[in-house]
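Anyone? Bumping this.
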Amino acid sequence: MLDKNGIAKRIAKELEDGYFVNLGIGIPTLVANYIPDGIAVEFQSENGVLGMGPFPYEGEEDADIINAGKQTITTMPGASFFDSATSFNMIRGQHVDLTILGAMEVAENGDIANWKIPGMMVKGMGGAMDLVASAENIIVAMMHTNRAGASKLLSKCSLPLTGVKCVKKVVTNLAVLSITEDGFKLLERAPGVSVEEIEKATEGKLIIEGNVPEMVLD
Amino acid sequence: MIRKIVNGVQEATEGVKDDMTFMLGGFGLCGIPENAIAELVRKNIKGLTCISNNAGVDDFGLGLLLQQKQIKKMVSSYVGENDEFERQMLSGELDVELIPQGTLAERCRAAQGGFPAFYTPAGYGTEVAEGKETREFNGKMYILEEAFKADFAFVKAWKGDEAGNLIFKGTARNFNPCMCGAAKITVAEVEEIVPAGTLDPDHIHIPGIFVQRIFEGKNYEKRIEQRTVRKR
């Protein structure tokens, strides 16, 4: 079974040379720590920066330079700043190659819910609805089950949707799955996790073909 | 040169009244019009509709207006990190319209540019699309979103000149340029005002035509919400 860093590490293997990538808050942010050697990627943050770098050294924080999680950041050589409308033109106009974000629920048809729990938590969708409605390549990073142990991979989302039929791939602490016409297709198992465990933790339709390989992380 | 400079925040906010609709720039606490917000708190006008990506934190930014119950309605994309906001929303005292961040930016820019509405895919198939016109273009579904209408836009820039030309810094730019010229009156506060002719026209982010009033702000706090650093 993977921890959050393991999920990030596995997703980092999906990065390709020349990709512009938008990372959501939470596990997706960790992906930046595992960029494979020999490839160049640039991170976009929807509040208005392309070419995000690591956190600043102590004492060098600048209140005017933050990411979408409101964390102080630095910029890489070649970085640029821009206004919010331009930022979402990059997203809506499909100039950003890959979007990685967290979710509360994903359905077997690619629907995603991650912005609201009615009556309990309403923080808002931020840029998530624009991202999922526009991106061609969307990977969800999340735990396979919620804190109560219930599956987050469902036949149908129960929470208000963020987007419809948009998720392409899901990487969890248990598995890598792609969304197909027929449901979740199991691509890889996390180290030490059996197909039966994944079946048990998946409420939506799971497609298992032949021997499912274990993930290779390093 | 047409002079846009006014004598401080009081003159800059002349004409603000109860029940008006305001746009306020900023992302989180980054690039917010601190001086204008402080003056709106002092004036204690009520029944406001505020269009702003976020709602500040409990004791800073728009959170200060919320504390005095000056806001009737918030139009935002993300409103975490604010307990008083959550309390007023759940109790029904505060009306909240949550909209996708890109839609928020574009509804400002549509107002700036004279577009009554535009189609966007963001929110299609979700509760955001409820009651809105939808249309298919090239096999994909879109929803029709309308330009905002606002009485005042309060924005914050880094530098400006007497003509109202603005230059922003870092990610403090965010929604500020989109809101300039998107309301009946745009009020820009800047950290430094320079004489006309000082700024290179090639480096202007927002031309002064989109700004009606400009003043040099005071005592910027520039609070950091999430101070994240690494060790040397």
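Late reply, but here is one note on the structure posted above: Chain A touches chain B through 51 residues (CB under 8 Å).
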